[in-house]
Design goal:
seven-stranded antiparallel beta sheet, Umud Fragment, subunit A, 2 domains, 1 helix, four-stranded antiparallel beta sheet, alpha+beta
Length: 198
């Protein structure tokens, strides 16, 4: 009888001590959930900041970059590259000129210190007297505008053209002209849409 009573007295404190363990587990779970949520919120804020100030989506409007880019394509553009080079696809604007009214997508053909010449009879483009190999264009460059060639590109500027050479308003026209590198909004790092052409 006494042994049974001792067991009862001994077992009761064991039941009482189980409750704080459950509370401790709940606190640990809550802390883990809070940590994950706060990390997620910080990640979202970081991504928003990157997209606002560094990387942004841009929609292609028009056919001037055919066959490389089609009307309606979405591009991911990086604003961290402020030293565009030949062949890069860039988003540019010309705030001090009458142009197309907004940013345009073009390809860098020449940079500061280089000389561009175009033989519109043969449709060939030369940079520093070297004929460019241009597998990315839709057709040869037969269309001229009001800019005279050969043209030396000043330091701090770039010369750009669309890949659809005969249906592109670009640096061959004074409406666009040479682009001050300060007005390069970014360079294309990938095509996000359509997914089959990612």
């Amino acid at each position: 009888m006494k042994i049974t009573e001792y067991k009862k007295v001994y077992s009761e404190p064991a039941c009482v001590t189980a409750s704080p363990n459950k509370e401790g587990m709940h606190k640990k779970i809550a802390a883990i959930v809070f940590e994950w949520l706060s990390s997620g919120i910080i990640a979202v804020i970081f991504l928003c900041a990157v997209f606002m100030f560094g990387v942004r989506p841009v929609r292609v409007d028009g056919d001037s970059m055919l066959p490389t880019l089609q009307d309606g394509n979405w591009l991911v553009v990086s604003a961290f590259d402020f030293n565009p080079e030949y062949g890069e696809i860039v988003i540019v604007t010309q705030p001090n000129r009458t142009s197309t009214g907004g940013p345009v997508v073009k390809r860098v053909i020449a940079v500061g210190g280089q000389t561009v010449d175009i033989d519109f009879e043969k449709g060939e483009v030369y940079v520093d007297n070297i004929k460019l190999d241009e597998p990315y264009i839709l057709e040869k460059t037969y269309r001229s505008f009001d800019v005279q060639f050969p043209l030396e590109v000043p330091e701090g500027y770039i010369f750009v053209m669309g890949d659809n050479r005969n249906d592109s308003l670009d640096s061959r026209s004074s409406r666009i002209g040479l682009i001050d590198k300060r007005y390069v909004l970014g360079s294309c790092i990938l095509r996000a849409h359509p997914f089959k052409k990612f």
